[in-house]
Amino acid sequence: MGEPAGIGGEIVLKTWRAHRDAPPFFVIDDPQRLAALAARLGWNVPVIEIAAPGDTVAAFGRGLPVLRETLPAPVAPGRADGRNAPAVLASIRRAVELARGGDAAAVVTNPINKSVLYGAGFHHPGHTEFLAELAGGNPTPVMMLVGGGLRVVPVTIHISLREALATLTTDGIVEISRITAHALRQDFGLARPRLAVAGLNPHAGEGGALGREDIEIVAPAIAQLRADGIDVSGPMPPDTMFHAAARARYDAAICMYHDQALIPLKTLDFERGVNVTLGLPFVRTSPDHGTAFNIAGTGAANEASLVAALMLADSLARQRARSAEVADA
Question: Which of 93, 94, 114, 281 has a CA-to-CA distance to 247 between 20 and 30 Å?
């Protein structure tokens, strides 16, 4: 569902309306609000309430399949209402339950508004950490962004740059890189994934002249990963590792902080970037954008990132199933 007052409902309706070649999907949402939204925008999108996920394929050719999660308060585009927050959280919990139970191949989440959810008991920095809690078993969730032929993984995420520098550790880089390498094999089908680790400082520290973090924190992590048998290069100067020729030499870039990873990806493919959560016992993707309250309800939202998230979720789920078959053989 995502935040009902945001653009999530619009991009879902647009996706069914304009991309019928997308893998069949169902939405956990309020059927009445989606039908009303389609009518207000003048879009011919029949909303079909389904009783169970298994009804999706039969319904998808006739309309948008929706598994009911009733919203208790009316939805006004661009104005989040805390009374609907419990239903938003319930839709996420339900999606995870269905994926873990085998009733859904993957979870694709629409953007949420965290400030509204805090009053309903949400206590996480974002979707990623909440999904890890719902997964159980204390997994380490890893955020990967995919788009424009690039995969990037930030080691530190939604914290200030000052805090990122203070919390960056060799062990953290190693753990994130190991999870990434495993996911590239299991979900992306890469037999021997190649990782490129970005340096922290300009020119990767210039041999210590521009800071010793790359020598004392990043380089030891790379040595450990190589000892583990992982194909890894670096520390690479961050300003020269994202041009086309450099990108051809690795399968994923391990970046030290949020913007170091997201700026190149969003520059390459702003509209179709996809957020993937690695390290979970189910596949999860999401559009790489926010709720866009400023255009909610206008029909102007671009659905390209959601379409890309659905397509990638389908691909990852199929590859994970193939990997499991090989492992069991």
Answer: 281
Per the listing, tokens 């509209």 go with 271
Q: How far apart are the first and last CA of the chain?
A: 38
The answer to whether the beta carbons of residues 251 and 195 sit under 8 Å apart is yes
- For residue 319, give the amino acid letter: Q
Alpha-helical regions (H) of 202-257:
213, 219-227, 244-247
Label residue 7 left, alpha or beta by phi (over 0 means left) and psi (-120 to 50 means alpha).
alpha
Which one-letter amino acid corresponds to residue 252?
A
SS3 (DSSP) at 248: coil
- Location of structure tokens 């009804």: 55
Question: Digits of tens for pLDDT over the chain (329 positions)?
Answer: 999 999 999 999 999 998 878 899 999 999 999 999 999 999 999 999 999 999 999 999 999 999 999 999 999 999 999 999 999 999 999 999 999 999 999 999 999 998 888 888 888 877 888 899 999 888 899 999 999 999 999 999 888 999 999 999 999 999 999 999 999 999 999 999 999 999 999 999 899 999 999 999 999 999 999 999 999 999 999 999 999 999 999 999 999 999 999 999 999 999 999 999 999 999 999 998 999 999 999 999 999 999 999 999 999 999 999 999 888 77
Element (H, E) at 285: strand 284-287
The residue among 180, 188, 145 whose CA lies nearest residue 275 is 145
* Distant-in-sequence, close-in-space partners of 42: CB < 8 Å, separation ≥ 6: none
The secondary element (H helix, E strand) that includes residue 235 is strand 231-236
Q: How far apart are CA 71 and CA 88, in angstroms?
A: 8
Task: Give the closest residue to 314 by CA, choosing from 140, 104, 171.
Answer: 104
**In this structure, what is the dihedral angle of CA atoms 17, 55, 274, 245, given to the nearest 10 degrees?**
-90
Token couple for 163? 């805090």
User: Residues with Cβ < 8 Å from 123, sequence gap 6 or more?
Assistant: none
